[in-house]
Amino acid sequence: MKPALAIAPLVAAAVALVLWCLVDMARHPVRLLPRWLWAVLCVASIPLGALLYLLLGRGVDASTGVEAGPPTVTGGRGTRPRRAPDPSRPAVTTTGLSKRYGDHLALDDVDLSVPEGSIYGLVGRNGAGKTTLLALLAGLRRPSAGTVDVGVPPDKVAVLPDTPWFDPWLTAFEVVDLARSLVAARRPPRASIDALGEAGLADVADRRVGGFSRGMLQRLGLAATVVGEPDLLLLDEPCSALDPAGRRDVLDLVARLAGQATVVFCSHILDDVQEVCDTVGVLGDGRLLFQGAVTDLLVGRASPAYRLRVRGDVAPLLDALDAAPWVHEVERLGAEELRIGVRDLATAETSLVPLLATVPVRVVRIEPATADLEHVFLELTR
Amino acid sequence: MTAAPDAPTRTTATPMGLWRLEWLRLVRTRRLAALLGTFGFFGLTAAPLARWAGELASRVGGSVQIIAPPPVPADAMTSYVSNASQLGLLVFVLVTAGAVTVDARAESAAFLRTRVRRRRDLVVPRLATNAAAGAAAYATGALLAWYGAVLLLGDLPIGPMAAGVVLGALYLPFLAAVAALVATRSASVAVTALATLAVALVSGLVGTLVPDRLARWLPSHLVGSITSLAGGGAVAEVLPAALTTVVATIALSALAVRFAGRREL
What we know:
Chain A contains 13 helices and 14 strands. By secondary structure, chain A is of the alpha/beta class. By secondary structure, chain B is mainly alpha-helical.
């Protein structure tokens, strides 16, 4: 009798393992072998078959994880009164900020000044130092030289990396609520649901994030960022993985934050920066090439240009423009559309029309080209 | 952003926090099942293996006659400790290293580091939860081995056995603290796990090289506490190692808290 009692738990454990595996394979995807073959293996070879199934046969089912409900909470918005931002006061200041990785100088003597309540666009080519600068502002890296002065408490700074990643076994609600519990514990859990709703993820609040697309993860990261009602948001390429509708949602959200929080909006999509940012900093090779209001940048920096639309063969026209000393550059915008950069506006105003009269093309439209951030950026970083 | 729908959103409203995060990590990633399964399996098989080891060896050995001394109850605990201190500790170290290496994913680390208010929040919940789970799994396996030993081989003294289980379980929080400290300097789970295993290995090796009066102060001495006490040893023999282990665990944990979040991402 005693040996039987000693062996019984072992046998019970083995049988329980096999039963658990059978139930598991009935409810979830399996790998390598058909489901029926795994079942036969589990039953025929106790417990080796079950162990093999656990090691090799279990498929990935990332979209599971919905937990039954009570207590149920409903939407609703709790907000806290915010101090009115003072644009004359910088929310973030860096002085002589430099960061060196071995021999590579990633940031070189950067003096950043982000006005409180502004939407500050940080633009630059790949490798210009944008992500390094954000990491230094967030305190995730230490400067090699210089200082960072962030004028808000650490728990009021929120960072959104360009590729957010969360433990895949957490649900979307749990991710956002974890952020809420850490930085805004005074807010009720319903604030997490509201944030998910604002991010367009209310319907998947109970889904595990392991099955989320990159765009959904970016939305989730944004929800986890805004749930704490931060005073300073550091957003690294927040639209990079979003579809056009998602991009529009994020831009609208960022625009709504103007005046309520300070946002450093790091992006290489210059149209986005031009649309939502009131202040811009241009980084090139680790140096801050320009910093100031977007309008100042567009008015003062772009070289004058004309947009020209013609009909017919543009080759003779291109030859004529190449030969003109007052033409700075010619960019083909389409088969019959050109952007003509000129060195001197006065000369162009007197010389462009006579030049057009000398070549066999029909002029459909000619107008001064408005400066846009893309051209200014290219000129600055050239 | 898209406006929140008017219809009530139904969702689980159990508030999150760092302690619940660690509990969910243990349960949903089946780390707890792995720990309980490993130590539980060794616990369940310990007594039958000790009881019928001779017969099994004779059947496998064919014509070779193997004469083994009659098994005693302490053999079951020796069998358990032997397996638990190898594969069991390996599983525990891998599970713990995966949890305490906060910087293993930079994006996830940035999420936590920019939100926790105190450095200890990065370390204590992960360290304590995994240490407790490991110690509980070790104790569960030991109790199962004890159960089998009583049924198949005979009684074991209750007091010394209980002390042996508790003292033996202290070794796992020590290893968890080692892993937590290594993790403050490493972004790799593999490095954290290997360094922790190296500490366990070196500690065990040193124990065999130094005189007994020194070896009994080493944390690795606790591994054999159940065997020693089940075989009639005195609790006082294991207490120095327990004292060292507790002090080292506290010191290592404090250092891990001190260095947490300092590594650049």
